[in-house]
Amino acid sequence: MRALVRIASWLYALAVYGFIFLPVVVLVLFSLQATSFPIPPFTGPSLRWYDAVLADTRLTSALVNSLLVAALSSAVAVTLGFLSAWGFARFTLLGSALLRGLITLPLTVSYLIIGMGLLVLFNWAGVPKSLLAAGIGHVVINLPLCFAIIYSQMGDHQINIERAARDLGAPEWKVLLLVTVPVMAPAIFAGFFLSMTFSWDEFVISFLLTRFDTTLPVEIWNLLRSGLNPKTNAVGSLVFAVSIVLVVFFELMLLRRKPA
User: Family, per the entry (predicted)?
Assistant: First the structure.
């Protein structure tokens, strides 16, 4: 009976992981297709379509745009998230529980709703569709995540370290930059890389808030409008590879954090 349960458990695990990763495996496999059609039989491996992607100026520009928007918006989001978390953790504020709930509220709201709201707001304020507008949208959706990660890691032991630095004569800004930030570095880097992961392949807000200069997910959508081909598979594989690298960095930052 135990053997049957073990076999069933392994089969269930294989089915779950197969359901999750099989589409990615097929995507990467047919990005290496040598012919012009991403259909069986497989005729690779070939890097022909990766060369085509790198030679396409629209795709490479969109790739650079995605990296810039992801990096800059994540930096702003993690900075604001850190300062917000520090303020709530170190000071007693009136209605702090309500304010913390309002900061994390965007985590429960659909990106479509947030994007449409930002589109209406920017149209009213006269802000044109651009990478800047998309970056602001990414800050809106990533700031609550950074705040939640950093705030959850702020404890009493850090208060004691900060108090010791003040007793030694350090001004408040030095305590913040030279004591609090290094102590919270693993959580800060984790929030940054996780935000980059979400921003890197975010589509809805980028689609609504950009026009001529677009990000890579929007450009992929434009390619898909003309049908599937190995070129779109190659672009999708590159997006997946970058996301994996960012997630690995995020996991490494969490593993480096030592318990108090």
Answer: Belongs to the binding-protein-dependent transport system permease family. CysTW subfamily.
